[in-house]
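Notes from the 1:1 (GR / supervisor)

We went over the backlog. Supervisor wanted to see one worked example end to end before approving the batch request, so GR pasted a single chain during the call. The sequence is below; no edits were made to it. Supervisor asked that the structure be written out right there so they could see what the output format looks like.
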Amino acid sequence: MKHISFSLLLTFFFIPSLWSMAEAPKDYITTRTTNRPKIDGKLNDECWKTLPEATDFTENDPVQGRPSAQKTVVKLTYDNNAIYVAAMMYDTQPDSMWFQLGDRDDFIQRCENFRFLIDTYNTNQDGYEFKVHASGVQADYRFQDNTYNGVWNSAVQLLPNGWSVEMEIPYAAIRFSNASEQVWGFQFTRYIARTREFSQYNLTERGAPNPQVQWGRLRGINNIISPIRLSLTPYLAATADRLPLTQNSPTTYANKYNITGGADIKYGINESFTLDMTLLPDFGQVRSDDRVKNLSAFEVIFNENRPFFNEGIELFQRGNLFYSRRIGQYPSQARNAFNNLSPNEIVDINPDKSRLLNSFKVSGRTEKKLGIGIFNAITAPTYAIIKDTQTENTRKVLTEPLINYNILVADQQFGSNSSAYLINLNTNRGKEFTDANVTGAGLNLQDKKQQYQISGSFVNSYRHKPSNASASTEATTEKGSLWNANIRKINGHWRWSAFTEWVSPNYNINDMGFNFYLNYIYNEAALSYNQFTPFGKVFKEGNVNIGYTPIYQYDNKRKISEAININAFIMTLKFFAVFINHNEELISSIDNYEPRYLGRIFIKPKESYTNIFFSTNYAKRFALDWGGDYGVRNPYNGSYKEIFLSPIWKANDHFTITLRHMHSIADNDLGYISSLNIDSIYIGQRTINTIVNNINIKYLIKNGLSIALNNRHYWARGKYKAIHFLNLDGTLAKDDTQSNDQNLLDGYYFNSNFFNVDLVLTWQFAPGSNIILT
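Structure output shown during the call:
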């Protein structure tokens, strides 16, 4: 194995590069049409006959710079309402073309596709992508908003000599300036599925930090006007739950039914800015959260599945300070409802989320590249209902006050890929609850040749809790800060970076965002070698990376961690990929969180782990991902073993099954188990066995109409072997009395099972209109 690895590195470093520099960008000059084409995929409309052709596509992948194996011809025109694109994809083997069905925005590798990309402000920092597969499936994307869903039209035709597509992109689906003469960045691409050839009209260098710089310019579009952009998206949700009647009666169940309705409104204020609002919002998750047994000192972070909080929020994510699941989250005082109950009282009703009253956001970008965003949401007060079982009297306990969430952001773009931003997040609760304010600023600079990047950010957090006379508490104020800086070489085979981040002990953004670790100075130096084009006789691409990470405590500057990481990725010309990673801790690390008391530390034994991952060609009917991890911790003979297996079977163009299996065993793992007070903390030595199985079945009745069944079973078991007393210096001393008490050890045993089943029917019955039943 050592000989093979050394040979691989020599291959990376010394084989001559096959790099082919990108050609000069090709522009396209169009003209206005007075004869709108019929969008049927047939390229026989009068408007297509006299337009210039965009042809001579160049292969980007797998062999960069080689002429495309198949001819492609594209034409483009416009009128007062839309942009129109016609493309003819010739194929010398039309019987071999692949045509897999799918839902809108599906990632489909077993199907030919054509893409039209435009940068309507010509800034090289944003853009729209419109993709049509040969099976007719549409997909779209906005570079700074991956939830973008435009309303546009397309049609395809399968022909004896290839396939053709027509696209209609209404001006209402995009944003552009009000200039009389429009100059847009643009790109055409084609994907041939059976050979996995990806070709472009304007060749861009693989691995380039900003490929948009190498796009061509679309000219000739003059005197167009952005139309009124107004859309109403109504929704109706019906739920049925069977839950324990109360936490005091976990074996008594009751059925709960609920029907809610409302609407989202989207209004284009002008050509640059859009207002999004909700009416009667009562958002539910569109899929189940993946619950886990949480043994850590931190909360579990879930994905956001609510459409309103996923769409058009790119500006509000500057600095990574906004976590939208905070809005409508589990009431902060809900668990306190069980405190101070009289002997005859029970908690009859205790809501598990705060109700959203309203929310809106305004966002856009001016002609001078200034992005502005305003976000506001209000949640209603939440109360638990306490019931006296003898008198039937009830009383209310406030578990969450009325909360106003607000974000203001300004983001200025300049150059080809440079920007600066300023953002403020404010959480106002009033009464005796804590208010919070977070302000962040950041700068990203790149040189004109796109070789180097310098970036940095600063964040200040402020939290204030007023005094409470009834509870005899005084007002408290908490201030914290974060700043970081990064310098990187971002182009070429050899790349490097140096990063540092300083976080003060009182830094806290958890009112609208989330942060786990505090009081640290994180440093990282990294070096990589990247090969983006084929080398040798079998390899398509690959890279090798090495990083060194020392971490210090902010307040006393002592080193709390030091590690080195080495990883490598390689893919063959047959699209078989291998990823190998090794992480070696050089010292025993200091954990400030596992003791669960501020000021206490836990000195964790040194760890090392290696993981390897394999992946086969996803374009095949059957593909397989598999891999494993192995880690060791000394002393205590700690080890971690994990296997991962995920077969993907595309039985036909309608039916796909994806299985995912993960099994891990953490032997002699060390973690918090209990405490009496800050001076009496115990760490458990345990074996944790975790199995996760996912079964995802999808059947496409036709394009845009599908049924998906998603099943997930999570099973975690923990058995304790010994209990250790945490010394004041962070070391462990085995508690023989408790460790020899088998009944006590068995009392800490846990067996957690979570089973989710999501059945989803999705029907896109018209462009921009969907019915989703879950």
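Supervisor's comment: Confidence is low (pLDDT under 50) at residues 1-21.
Batch request approved.
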